[in-house]
Input
Amino acid sequence: MDIDPQTNTPEILERKKQDQRLMNGVLALLLVCFLGHYLWQFFTFGRFNTLLYVVQVGIMAVLFLIRDFPKRTSLKPYDWAVAIGGTWLPLLLQPHNLEDIPVFVGLQAAGLVIAILGYLSLNKSLGIVPALRGVKTRGLYGFVRHPIYLAYFIAYGAFFAQNISLFNFAVLMGVYVLDILRILAEEKFLSQSPDYEAYMQHVRWRLIPYVW
Output
């Protein structure tokens, strides 16, 4: 979706903005489903970390409602598939161990806090599908290019360590693979912007400094 006013009439630009507002509202509504899911987990299992998920999803819902309009959005089905799959698949992770293991609780909390800080760093540039909404270089994005995915790796890995099962392992591996594919798809799309190319030269590492 291209909403550059230099290449669109005012009528087309306004229609595309209306479409974007509708999409933002739909995404925020979908996030309410996440809130319901995590609230159910909290009242069922009484896990403190589940409240952090509620805060995380609540912040996402607000940012989706107020986020900037993109100059361009990827229309590739592949980019949409890995983005949607990576977003929804973690909901399949199943809690079943009622005893908290402190080290893994701490890691999960750390991952969720990093994710929340990543959302706040992106602010109104938050998205699911690759889109050009400006390049963020401050906050956590001054250290690695994809701190939110790093947070997911930590939080979901710690969750699995507390709730080990073959099913959860399969879901976790699926989430990790999809998130890596999302990173590659996003960078391929965003590197069309000279600003993002410069950012990639400045911040060399995607997830872990000196590793990848």
